[in-house]
Amino acid sequence: MGIVSEDKKIELELPACEEYLKYRVLIVVNGLYLQIDPVSGAEPFLENGRTMVPLRALADAFGFEVGWEPNEQKITLTKEAKSIVLQIGKPEMLVDGEKVQLEEAVPLIKKGMTFLPVRQLAELLGIQVEWDGDIRMATFTSKK
User: Fold this and answer.
1) pTM for this predicted structure
2) Best label site of 6, 22, 53, 131, fewest CB within 10 Å?
3) Signal peptide span per the entry (predicted)?
């Protein structure tokens, strides 16, 4: 199957519905589905049982400002008075200057895009997190 984007034809290999449902992950933030272009390769996925979300989608959904230092592959997320620093492939993050171990998954680059394990980041911001394994959906709700 192919689609046309900006006058270029892009070939897609689409899995059968049953196969796709085995690995797709839905993300809901404050009652709204997180929309991610499937052609971009930036779809959320599970890594060692942890939901991995593209950095840009995560920043937009949670209101983070993002800093990126390519030489160190270091990501800085800031929101209000909270500062979170992560590094690609590293199993810890700095939260307001204090080390916190990541659980089961580390920031990574896949298909040229940065993905972050989202649960701990959400919880650090006081966001309620729920996982429905039957339909593979992560729901994030800001506490008011």
Assistant:
1) 0.74
2) 6
3) none
